[in-house]
Amino acid sequence: MDIVTGFMIWAAEASTIGVLLWTRWFYERQPFYFTWGTGFIFHGLGIGMVALRGTLPDFVSIEIANVMALGGIGLWVAGMMQFDNRRVEPLVAIPSLIFVAGMLLEPVRTNFSYRVALFHGAASVGYLMLIATVLWGENGRSQTRRVFATCVGIQVLSSIIVAVFALISQPQSFASGNNSFLLLLVAALCFIAAIMSGSKLISERKEAKLKLLAVTDPLTELLNRRGLIEEFHKLKRSHADDSGFLALIHLDLDGFKQINDIYGHQAGDEVLVAFGKIGTAAQRGRGSFGRMGGEEFASIMYVANMIEAASVAEAIRTTLKRQPITVGEHQIPVTVSIGIALAEIGSANLDTLLSAADRALYVAKTNGRDRTAIGTENDVSIVPAIDHADTPDTPVQANMTQQVAALRRIVAIGK
């Protein structure tokens, strides 16, 4: 089999892969499938037109064909950016532009060996861009990405060798290149290995997406109960050597049934989503905010002390109260009742924290709602609230030292 036949086989395989990726895109509508598919189609058609040199006009089999083949490499880079949810940069056009710029030079345009060297040099740049995109993307240290980058790296080396041989031996056609077919075989093997690695990347992405769906609430896109449980154990492991506390904050929107009855369930859903954003913003890297179910939410946080946990809870409560949620033409006033439980890292038990936080939430509800309460092993205390300063003392009293400190902390957050 001569090298021209090898080119045609390569073109047919690349085009077939492109069509399969387009089919995948048609069903899943993921943009990277379409971009990759287009890249393979361009690359395959370009290589095929190069192989038909002598049958097609020189402008088609040289200029257009090589630009298309290199454009395919650029589209692979663009697809990888989309795969990692990154913005596609115009730099993906560099391989094609290198060839176009080189062809403006008379010695390159009229000399076969120079054109071969130019093409493979531009291809090497494109492959290096692909390696950089793979390794600097999401989870760039994964084993699969490293294997993929290695396969592409071998392709870079193969292209550089072809370019050097072309400059040294000065062949006048593909048939006169002594090592061309061997290098084409190596490139084909790397190409297949890269395709297999790419398939593994897609498979891993799907597995990660399924895992995320298992721990995510579909409406608010927050962690669900299972996700919060995993977050609790993750925080406990990561702070095992620290002297702080794990706080569980249980939040329940007040009168949510009335919101659904008055404004409709769609408005109720928008209230849940908006509240989720408020709760998430208040975390500030301390932990995670999630939806337990219905109108109940929770936060798992690592904090230095009870005051910090109460400050975060009060920041969420007062922010929600001050900012009615806009749904269409309606301004919906919403309040939330909150229960807090705290435990040292080493002895933190999720069931115990949940029980204590539930008791505290119940006290907050029965003492007028729109309150924050702290639950301990022995009792429950209402956190003093600056927006309830004129309200008579509630039946459950908080420790005065904690009241003063909490107030100072809350005021500091509001500044």
Automatic annotation (TrEMBL):
Its EC number is 2.7.7.65. It catalyses: 2 GTP = 3',3'-c-di-GMP + 2 diphosphate. CDD domains: GGDEF (cd01949). PROSITE patterns: GGDEF (PS50887). Keywords: Membrane, Transmembrane, Transmembrane helix. SMART domains: GGDEF. This is diguanylate cyclase. It comes from Aliirhizobium smilacinae.
